[in-house]
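Field: COMPLEX_INPUT
Field: COMPONENT_COUNT = four
Field: RESIDUE_TOTAL = 460
Field: MODE = joint
Values follow.
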Amino acid sequence: MERKDIEEYFNVALATSLVIFGFDLDKLHILLKFNEEEPFKGAYILPSKYIKPDQSIDLNVKKLLISSIGSDDAYIEQLNASGKVFRNPLGRVLNIGHYGLVRFDPKETEKFKKQGLKWFAYDEIPDLAFDHNTIVDFAKERLKRRVKRRPVGFNLLPKEFTIAQLQSLYEEALNKSFDKRNFRKKIFNSKLLIDLEKSIETSSGKESKLYKFDEDKYAKMSSIGYDFLF
Amino acid sequence: MERKDIEEYFNVALATSLVIFGFDLDKLHILLKFNEEEPFKGAYILPSKYIKPDQSIDLNVKKLLISSIGSDDAYIEQLNASGKVFRNPLGRVLNIGHYGLVRFDPKETEKFKKQGLKWFAYDEIPDLAFDHNTIVDFAKERLKRRVKRRPVGFNLLPKEFTIAQLQSLYEEALNKSFDKRNFRKKIFNSKLLIDLEKSIETSSGKESKLYKFDEDKYAKMSSIGYDFLF
DNA sequence: GCAAAAGTGTTGGGGATACACCCATGG
DNA sequence: CCATGGGTGTATCCCCAACACTTTTGC
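Field: COMPLEX_OUTPUT
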């Protein structure tokens, strides 16, 4: 490649953005950030971070996760790079979207607030800066597909959870409802859950049994893929 | 962002690479290019092209397709961006992989040869320059998943084809074999094929019926997705 | 006593799989 | 006459979908 080409081509910046999904045992949420900087100051955006030219995408994502939610304990998957030349006044920025699944901890809401981070209901995402709404839509579609084919609750639910909670997670993500009995059958057939032989009291005052995931089985099914066909 | 940051970050180049699959009615192949330039002169690579900072990814891919196979009539899908900082002596180049499905035309083999392009059998891909083997593997996995869920033959088979040809395409892509009768049942149940009411003579000397895809149905099933579950 | 949520079985149908033989042709 | 590949039907099984009532508890 010629000298002039180098100048012409090596003139792009990279950034990553995260669509972080959290589940509060009732609804799915997405974590958004209030943008304090130009361009698009005052708008909400996805948590994002420029990538240094000598840094890998994954490391950048890890750092971004830690600076956003305080840990990198999340299931992360890369999405497509946004193809359009988005009009960022600074120059071309290629954004590589990711989606992440994290455990929703209501206690952290206050801490998030100080950083300008806020959970928004899955179906009430405001207009975002840049092309971030497109990335969110893409992530939602991806999540739907993943939910159908792989066990997906591990990173969204607390360690111990009830079947009803698991079911409402699926119902939220796929935006439809399931018959309780059929749902239970399917889940139990998969042998994915371990009965913890204890209960918690639920909102109705009645007791409900707790389960956890069989982590080995879960890992196997996640990597191989599985035909849940919800 | 500060002036110095701009210099620091806007220092990356983008490129696209294509994993082009073709099916010669017997085996799947991938189109590779003999690399005439440094770095890695003399190695095979994926057809690749730098992206100008003001050009969209898709347009770049389209141009790359046309310059490689002489047309952009292909099914194309974006893959993940390669995450590692690959040691290209010129600087950081972020490669955005794509895979494409095209009709294999044996007549074009000669024409390809002049451009240094050559079809390699799906399971006999040599060592490639850069991280292109990783991209190939990723593309193969993606193809497998697509084949299971969506009709995929349209861009790989000739306009008119026999059931046996369709079956060997599936067998190749998924690397397993199917019962003839069950395969036919499944395909006919999908109502995806139109009987052309004519035949060709096959290698065994016997006649074989020709079919084409019902394009409307095909388009619908491609976008909605479908549980073929091969 | 009533609202709210937990828990539990059965049935019918459709699609997947397994499996074997006949036919036409070219050599 | 035999090797090659095209074409066809049946029986079984399993998974999915549909569907309703009882129980506990708090109010």
